# Entry
Amino acid sequence: MPELAEVEFFRKRWDLAGAGQRVLKVELHPGAKIFRGADPAAIRHALTGAKLVSSEARAKQMLFHFSGDAWLGVHLGMSGELRVEPSNYAPRKHDHLALEMKRQVLVFNDPRMFGRVQFHHGKQPPRWWTHIAPAILSKDFTAAVVAAFLQRRGRAPIKAVLLMQERFPGVGNWMADEILWRAAIHPRRAAGSLDPAEIRSLWRECRKVCRLALNAIAGRGRQLPKDLNVNIPTTWLFRHRWEAGGRDPLSGALLMRAEIGGRTTCWSPARQRLPGNDG
DNA sequence: GTGCTTGTTGGCCA
DNA sequence: GTGGCCAACAAGCA
# Structure
């Protein structure tokens, strides 16, 4: 599930319950793959007794800052989620990390274990955090920066390029499709083939989709509707992309699906044209 | 059983 | 060295 907005939702969920609270006990399974590259014993040692000071989400990553110069990074991968449970909760399968506080427990669960926990000790946040590309909603994400990147990745399909975190931090499979649909650009177009007007449109829709997704999904971190449809308008591709016989909400055309850039991609052949081809 | 899945990475090749 | 492609990672669901 987790792309930009969902990640922000999960960060808020932990933050609302845990900010200012002290970790009394750390439960973790050292063998879990989510700890690859990190030292579970060091995490346990540093976080036990530490207070959650603040947190931040960038792209698909989260950073939780604890007292004692301890920083916990979380990436949810494909199937990870953060939960808040009461103290007497029954642990579930794939609960890999639990931070027990006075009243509640912060839990990281991830069945597929593509997610990851990172740990850093120091006055300043770690490099793997500060080196995340400038946010799409920041001033540094300009149309010129996008244009230069599309030029460099000129022969790759634009769909694949939108998934590159080094330039489009936080964009995942459904956001990429939503952006291309709104910008009326076929996902198979070579990135270098976009004209200036298309690049500008792409840039604008990147920002819009990020902003709207954050508003619709991240909320206050309390309730993520089981069905995201509750908060996403029917005018979005998102509402129709998985339906059998799903239709473009603007033109009514039947949506197409194919693997592009290694990922299942959905587009509207009526709205997103491929030169010299019908779709 | 088959064939999917909102992500990332490393190896191969041009 | 750079860019593009793809298999692999692993578990659950229909």
Residues 242 and 266 of chain A are 8 Å apart (CA to CA). Chain A has a mean pLDDT of 92. Residues 196-218 of chain A form the longest helix (23 residues).
